[in-house]
Automatic annotation (TrEMBL):
This is Zinc-containing alcohol dehydrogenase superfamily protein. Belongs to the zinc-containing alcohol dehydrogenase family. InterPro entries: ADH-like_C, ADH-like_N, ADH_Zn_CS, ER, GroES-like_sf, NAD(P)-bd_dom_sf, Zn_alcohol_dh. One of its GO terms (molecular function) is oxidoreductase activity, acting on the CH-OH group of donors, NAD or NADP as acceptor. Its cofactor is Zn(2+). Residues 9-341 form the Enoyl reductase (ER) domain. The keyword Zinc applies. The keyword Zinc applies. It holds the Pfam family ADH_N. Keywords: Metal-binding, Oxidoreductase, Zinc. SMART domains: PKS_ER. It comes from Caballeronia calidae.
Length: 343
């Protein structure tokens, strides 16, 4: 089969890779949808290292969704049967540490942790071999594309909201209206929050309105912390989700948060500088959120089903694997919605 390999230097290759067969405790998933994530841009943009041969690299893609095609020995029927519609939690750990036991294998020790698309083959290929414990059922009302989104981007937004624990009457500012930010806007609105969407791109802000944003702010044209206070009678917002990875956005979120406010940092790559004294009298809580647990991924899917939320609207581009070079050029521009490879 052909699998997409990131070479770095904005180069990819559709390499010939052997069809996978499941070992003990594993399954092979026939991929139906493999989402493109903004974090794919890190290996895509990384420096090209010609000393690493293609056969030593792994297939990219960490938003898998599909159908169980083969089941290895030792996998109980209630865990996986051929034909099951499934999502994949794209981490697998030792299974015995307290993090793995509570559904957080991404927090397992790096020496024993597998991250599909980084340390093992991912989903940008027709078939993917995974540990059976990574599988989660895909509800019949959800498309494979929706399942792919929940497997990382939308699930990541859910994970951030679960860290913040909104009760439904808060004003929450969502910085960045890419796929993760739009998902946060959609989910926070559905949970009853008043959502202020922040971005630099007017098209994305207009899209955010259709996802439930009550107010939009273009950071190019307004002082965002001042605008957040103006919109909240001078108090600032109770909650912030920062999804863009921008240092400026993270700082603006901190500066626009109310007394006892909470800031959740999700975007990768940003840096913030904090003068402790300036925040002591505001009792601000700053936290991070790293994707979602297996339990959280399932809860996110169930919430979307129960509220009949249209996650498919996140996708503005659907690609065949043969179109991968163009697909990643579009993603690299970071001016569109979400992309997905369909098989």
């Amino acid at each position: 089969m052909k699998g997409l390999i990131f070479l770095g230097g904005r180069q990819i290759e559709l390499a010939d890779v052997a069809d996978p067969t499941p070992d003990l405790g594993e399954v092979v998933v026939q991929i139906k949808a493999s989402g493109m994530c903004g974090s794919d841009l890190h290996p895509y943009r990384a420096a090209y290292d010609p000393s690493i041969p293609v056969e030593k690299r792994v297939i990219g893609g960490h938003e898998p969704c599909g159908i169980v095609a083969a089941v290895g020995a030792g996998v109980p029927e209630h865990v996986a049967r051929i034909g099951d519609r499934v999502m994949v939690h794209h981490y697998f750990g030792c299974t015995t540490c307290r993090h793995c036991r509570t559904g957080w294998p991404q927090l397992c020790l790096p020496a024993t942790r597998i991250t599909y698309s980084a340390t093992a083959h991912g989903a940008h290929a027709p078939y993917m071999k995974v540990a059976a414990a990574t599988l989660l059922p895909l509800h019949e009302s959800l498309s494979f594309e929706a399942g792919a989104a929940i497997s990382c981007g939308t699930g990541t937004a859910w994970g951030a909201l679960e860290r913040l624990q909104p009760s439904g009457d808060e004003t929450i500012a969502v910085f960045g209206q890419g796929p993760v930010g739009l998902s946060a806007t959609l989910l926070a609105s559905a949970r009853g929050c008043r959502v202020i969407a922040v971005d630099l791109d007017e098209d994305r802000l207009n899209l955010a309105k259709t996802f439930g944003a009550d107010v939009t702010l273009n950071a190019k044209s307004v002082n965002v912390p001042e605008a957040l206070r103006d919109l909240t009678d001078g108090r600032g917002v109770e909650m912030v989700v920062e999804t863009s990875g921008s240092s400026e956005a993270a700082q603006a979120g901190l500066n626009g948060t109310a007394v006892w406010g909470k800031v959740c940092l999700v975007g990768i790559g940003g840096k913030i500088s904090v003068e402790t004294k300036a925040f002591l009298d505001r009792q601000v809580t700053v936290m991070t959120s790293y994707t979602m647990s297996t339990v959280g991924q399932q809860e996110c899917a169930e919430f979307i089903v129960s509220r009949n939320l249209n996650v498919d609207r996140l996708f503005t581009h659907r690609w065949n694997l043969s179109e991968a070079e163009e697909a990643y050029r579009v993603l690299d521009a970071q001016s569109s919605g979400k992309g997905v490879f369909l098989f």
